[in-house]
Amino acid sequence: MAVIAGDGVGQEVMPPAITCVDAALARHGHTIEWTHLDWGSDLYLRTGSMMPRDGLDLLSSHQAIFLGAVGMPGVPDTETLWGLLIPIRRAFEQYVNLRPVRSLPGITSPVAGGDALDLVIVRENNEGEYSEIGGRAYRDRAQEMAIQVDVFTRAGITKVAEFAAGYAAHRRGLVTSATKSNGIIHSMPFWDEVTAQVCAANGVELESVLIDALVAKLVLQPSHFDVIVASNLFGDILSDLAGAIAGSIGVAPSANLNPERTYPSLFEPVHGSAPDIAGQGIANPIGQVWSGAMMLDHLGQHEAAADLVAAFEAVLARGIVTRDLGGTASTDEVGDAIVAELTA
Q1: Residues lower than pLDDT 50 in the chain
Q2: pLDDT at residue 61 in the model
Q3: Tell me, what's the pLDDT at 215?
Q4: Which of 26, 68, 76, 121 could form a disulfide with 6 if both were Cys (CB 3.0 to 4.6 A apart)?
Q5: Res 77: pLDDT
Q6: Are strands 2-6 and 64-69 parallel, antiparallel or unpaired?
Q7: DSSP 281-329
Q8: Distance between start and end Cα atoms, the chain
Q9: DSSP assignment of 84-100
């Protein structure tokens, strides 16, 4: 497995997460060979690049990629994201960003009904609003302008909708599609059309909900949702909102998947590099640990993945939590408690 701890709290949550993954595998007689890659903003400040020129070739020889976080004050986000994470997602055709969100033991939701939250967000990960097409013109003049072109293809929508439909078929069978077809005149009606065709062909129930109404319903009726399929931008926003409803974005995991397994997939917590708390040893490692469990599940280590989830849930239930969840435990103390559960 390739490991990119990255920046900020990524450097702090990665070591305990690796230790937890190793402990879960050891219960079943397996090990992982970790390849640690010192890529990120520090490398950018030294060399002008977030990863080496042959970085993608190096990653392609691994089964999966375990990422902490990227981002550092003084380094533009356009460099940290477009220099590392987004090239990996696109070069390896990781067109599904899978983000499970559910209530966890010992964590109280700030929203009424949030303690019954159990949903999965399937975010289109390669196109949509995060395209490279566009530009700036008339810089520093009165008529200065910026043009950003969204890209929606039938192939791209179909693939992510099929994944969402297949996922829902093994859950409650409900797909909620995030749209804005009343205001975005071309791309969103096209999104609606293709998702409707795919869900009908796969025999799952589909509800298409305008994004503004959807975020309101997510707060007012969080237990209603099963699988939400969304474009790149909408999925990004919805997953952060859902994580907050669950009690903390610090516990939210994600997987950037190449479902065909032609290329390695990437696993990372939803939270960012959190420079405001970096270096204090108080970052919540659960999002990184849960992402590790998703990685194990993707690699076919289903029992180890289930053990890891059960272990961190037991630790949460005992109240061994970091400050964002109202506790006093350090990052390493939470990790040590999870390992103790796995080795008991």
Answers
A1: none
A2: 96
A3: 97
A4: 68
A5: 87
A6: parallel
A7: S----HHHHHHHHHHHHHTT-HHHHHHHHHHHHHHHHTT---GGGT---
A8: 26
A9: IIHHHHHHTT--EEEEE
Secondary structure class of 55 (helix, strand, coil)? helix
Nearest to 198 by CA among 154, 243, 233: 154
The angle at the Cα of 103, spanning 343 to 96, to the nearest 5 degrees, equals 90
Neighbouring C-alpha atoms within 13 Å toward the C-beta of 314: 15
Contact 42, 77 (CB under 8 A): no
Q: In degrees rounded to 5, what are phi and psi of residue 272?
A: -90, -160
pLDDT of residue 135: 95
Angle between helices 286-298 and 302-317 (to 10 degrees): 160
> Residues 251, 107: contact at Cβ < 8 Å?
yes
Provide the greatest CA pair distance for the chain.
68
Helices (H), the chain: 10-26, 41-47, 55-59, 77-80, 86-91, 154-169, 187-202, 211-220, 232-246, 286-298, 302-317, 331-343
Distance CA 329, CA 310 (A): 19
Q: Do the Cβ atoms of 73 and 42 come closer than 8 Å?
A: no
Query: Is residue 175 exposed (0-12), middle (13-18) or buried (19+ Cβ within 10 Å)?
Result: buried
What is the distance between the alpha carbons of residues 151 and 132, in angstroms, rounded to a whole number? 9
Residue whose token pair is 């071309």: 186
DSSP β-ladder status, 227-230 and 174-179:
parallel
The structure tokens listed for 62 are 């691994």
DSSP letter, residue 173: S
Bridge-partner residues for 72, per DSSP?
Answer: 75
Best CA proximity match to 251, nearest among 212, 302, 294, 218: 294
